[in-house]
Amino acid sequence: MSKADRTRRRRIVVPLAPLLLIAGTVFGLAVGSVPISLRDIFSILTGGSHSQYDVILMDVRLPRVLVGVLVGACLAASGALLQGIMRNPLADPGIIGVSAGGGLAAVVTLVLLPQLSYLLPPAAFAGSLVAALLIYSLSWDNGASPIKIVLAGVAVSALLGAVMNGIMVVHSDRIQAVIPWLAGGLNGRSWHHLSFMLPYALAGLALTVPAIKPANVLMLGDKTARLLGQRVELQRLLLLALAALLAGTAVSVAGLVGFVGLVVPHAVRLLIGDDYRYLMPVSIAGGGALVVIADTIARTWFDPAEMPVGILLACIGAPFFLYLLRKRSGVR
User: Fold this and answer.
1) Cβ 310 vs Cβ 183: under 8 Å
2) Average pLDDT over residues 121-145
3) InterPro entries per the record (predicted)?
4) CATH for the 3-325 domain, from 1.10.4160.10, 1.10.3470.10, 1.10.10.10, 1.10.8.60
């Protein structure tokens, strides 16, 4: 892609991203088993109407949509950071094991310590961070190369997944509440869940702003970054911790929603290039829009049943991942 093409695309994509997020949010509020018109949505949100749709919109759809926006934004931002740290478009919170750490912590909390369920967000973050640090330490050999981080992440993800399954087998009488969470979904998410994750999500997303410059520098390669006076290993570790915070926040509320951190940043990168000044905000908006739109489709297309959004996103993300593997391997 030439510089002129990239600049032209940025002028189109950057302003369209927030509009797509707004459109996805309105779509999520309007569409369902009980359709709500745009006029009614506006009137209810501005306090100018008290109709039979008030409870549906304010107590059911609005918190669910807002949770979906934050979940998608956090996962996309986490994926964008991981792809920059590793200089690998196949990196993703789920693929390299960060989500598995948060998932294991959440399973332990929900199954073994249900009385501490109010600590689910910090527990999921702690699990994601511990997994990230474990992956980083296992890949360390006079520095942590991106390839070693990916390989260590795959191994750690498999190990943590086995532990999760072991806990559920031993405590099979307690896993009914965990199964929907493992599939990844937003069913039943309320204002309680939104308030649960909001501080962590806002803190993580705010920290992506100062992370833009080091992420751009790391994309140049370790040698170039060191020549520019950067402390490469420290920056990589801090960005990895931020990615863990974002992934753990999303996991704690939505469960194991996969592929958002892979599909969105990579698609944005193909459109507008690697500059994180544009890549990060567009990925955040695109991730929020994707999860809300996918969740709306998942809860309406299969009515009266409701498919977890994680299953639908896996159906989208898995073929995209295979396409990337095929393209990177040079197979035609």
Assistant:
1) yes
2) 77
3) ABC_BtuC-like, ABC_transptr_permease_BtuC
4) 1.10.3470.10
Report which of residues 29 and 230 the model is more confident about: 29
Q: According to the per-residue pLDDT averaged within each range, which of 34-38, 58-62, 285-289 is highest?
A: 285-289
Q: 193-212 pLDDT, tens per residue? A: 898 889 989 999 999 999 99
Do 91 and 85 touch, CB atoms closer than 8 A? yes
Res. 331 pLDDT band, cuts 50 70 90: very low
pTM of the model: 0.87
The number of beta carbons lying within 10 Å of the beta carbon of residue 161 is: 15
Of 77, 73, 68, the closest CA to residue 242 belongs to 77
C-alpha dihedral sign at 176, 181, 184, 188: positive
Residue 229 has pLDDT above 60, yes or no: yes
In this prediction, residue 332 has a pLDDT band, given cuts at 50, 70 and 90, of very low
Distance separating alpha carbons of residues 99 and 93, to the nearest angstrom: 5
Tell me the pLDDT of the chain averaged across its residues.
84
